[in-house]
């Protein structure tokens, strides 16, 4: 039996409202929730792909542990044991900074993802931390710091009153387009003039 569920997309900080179609416990469709007060129906291709994501046969549903060169399904206990067995020799031989952590975007959208990494970092004593921010966002912080004196003073385009929008190195249809999350998104507002996004 099919039903509709209203959810918030957990994949990035734009937090778009989703209207999901669920058939027998499986997500079979996803579209923007036009009544969402924030995103007003806007979603990006990632949000629209929730149905395909849910039924993807390659989606990880259990930990995998490499055993004799092959990945095999394992319990969480086995997985944590494998992690501990792998990390300890590295720390003992090369020091804590040899262990690098890469935190993906969805970590900031779950309670566990926000709470546990600081504990893990403190336990490891490593300074080798990488995130979505360190990979693709630092130039924005550096330029904002140099221009405005504050690395977090990131200007948000005033799309409603923009006559000509020139996007360099940005895709207006990607998630949280050009640091302008909904409702200053393609669905919430549009530049009144031209929008130009040269492709490299
Ligand atoms: S911009 Fe895309 S990934 Fe981000 S919350 Fe909205 S639908 Fe999800």
Automatic annotation (TrEMBL):
Concerning Pfam families, the annotation shows: Molybdop_Fe4S4 (PF04879), Molybdopterin (PF00384)
The organism encoding this protein is: Streptomyces haneummycinicus
Segments of this protein annotated with the region Disordered = 179-200
Protein name as catalogued? 4Fe-4S Mo/W bis-MGD-type domain-containing protein
GO cellular component terms, alphabetically, are:
membrane
Cited Gene3D superfamilies:
3.40.50.740, ADC-like domains (2.20.25.90), Dimethylsulfoxide Reductase, domain 2 (3.40.228.10)
The answer to keyword Metal-binding applying to this record is: yes
Residues in domain 4Fe-4S Mo/W bis-MGD-type?
2-58
PROSITE patterns recorded for this chain? Answer: 4FE4S_MOW_BIS_MGD
Which GO MF term does the entry hold, naming one? oxidoreductase activity
The record's listing under SUPFAM superfamilies reads: Formate dehydrogenase/DMSO reductase, domains 1-3 (SSF53706)
Q: Identify the InterPro entries for this entry.
A: Mopterin_OxRdtase (IPR006656), Mopterin_OxRdtase_4Fe-4S_dom (IPR006963), Prok_molybdopt-oxidoreductase (IPR050123)
Residues in a coiled coil are none
Q: Which UniProt keywords apply?
A: 4Fe-4S, Iron, Iron-sulfur, Metal-binding, Oxidoreductase
